[in-house]
Amino acid sequence: MYQLKQDKVVSHLNNRPRLAVTLGDPAGIGTEVVLKALADSDIYNDCDLTVVGNRSLLIKNYTYLQKNENIDFLDVSLDDNIKDKVTLGVESAASGAASFAFMEAAIAATLAGDFDGIVTGPIAKSAWKAAGHIYPGQTELLAEKAGVEKFGMLFVARSPHTNWTLRTLLATTHIPLCQVSEALTPELMSRKLDLLVECLEKDFGIKNGKIVIAGLNPHSGERGQLGTEEADWLFDWLEGEQKKRPNLTLSGLIPPDTMWVQPGQAWYGNSNIKSQIQAADGYLALYHDQGLIPVKLMAFDRAVNTTIGLPFIRTSPDHGTAFDIAGKGIADPTSMKAAIELASELVSVRISDR
Ligand SMILES: NC(=O)C1=CN([C@@H]2O[C@H](COP(=O)(O)OP(=O)(O)OC[C@H]3O[C@@H](n4cnc5c(N)ncnc54)[C@H](O)[C@@H]3O)[C@@H](O)[C@H]2O)C=CC1
Ligand SMILES: NCC(=O)COP(=O)(O)O
Questions:
Q1: Which one of the ligands is nearest to 330 CA?
Q2: E-state strands within 111-221
Q3: Among 18, 43, 55, 70, which residue's CB has the most CB atoms within a 10 Å radius?
Q4: What ipTM was predicted for this assembly?
Q5: What is the 299 CA–ligand 2 centroid distance (Å)?
Q6: Which residue windows are coiled coil (predicted)?
């Protein structure tokens, strides 16, 4: 059983963010990017970090990366038959059972008050399924355990070229493309917009911001010729929302291809300064790849996936388990570092608001 250490109590009283960092799927690159991130002493400047995983698995697979012996560790016990079956680069029921156990431990400790937030290493949803845990992803497990029904998947990335911040919320997430149209409803869209508005205000200090909303079909339907969802209800929904929220600037339904031109210019700074001024504070994409292709094109090395609507902070790197390079020592930890830094910033904002 995990015991709250005395130094955690002290850091809580000092208002330093206390973050749990899960190792993700032990057959993927999660452990590598966490250990590389923690090898940079600057990462501890503003927060206290506790790794959540299985120590003996870590030692078995990542001996060459163990430069830092002093990391705080929440050692999650695993049966030997799970540990013996975990093989670097090979997704399996065992690796899924392990990453699920790490998440459960981190969530339980956070809900018990030991941490202010969780930074999660990447997991494979298919490995969770093979282990008998049927969730679309970590997001839904977090929401279920925290008992919230209103939550969202927001990607945040700060441009290294201009310092401009891209924030993209997905209206729908891990569902087949053929189910997107049916899943999108005025109620769902309003729920996601509420979450984005609240998060901009509470977490990023942006009141009365500008939010851009994507259309669904090519050219936002071209007056019904290329798809009818926009004409049937999406334009009316948006008009209703703008009336309800006169202080916000809601812009849409922007044709999904051209929607990303302005953020791209603001990100790279290769246009005039106007693009950064005109770019929005938040973008609402209607489905997974509509939002994530541009995020990953601009910022695959540094974007952060954050779950909004939870009673605690959760962030994660934007990349996955990368089984193809696991154990090779070439995984880039930049996105993991950004996830830790963002979690620390967001917790600090909440602590200062208390
Ligand atoms: N936050 C999470 O838990 C996420 C989990 N996934 C899961 O990951 C698994 C694999 O998904 P893929 O689509 O292949 O995406 P992926 O991000 O794991 O890999 C895509 C490509 O990028 C490379 N790559 C990824 N991260 C890298 C890093 N830090 N440094 C250097 N190269 C890196 C990989 O080697 C691969 O060539 C799936 O099971 C998916 O569900 C995917 C995205 C996020
Ligand atoms: N594409 C984002 C992703 O797969 C992250 O999912 P989750 O595990 O954070 O729910």
A1: 1
A2: 117-119, 152-158, 165-170, 210-214
A3: 18
A4: 0.98
A5: 16
A6: none
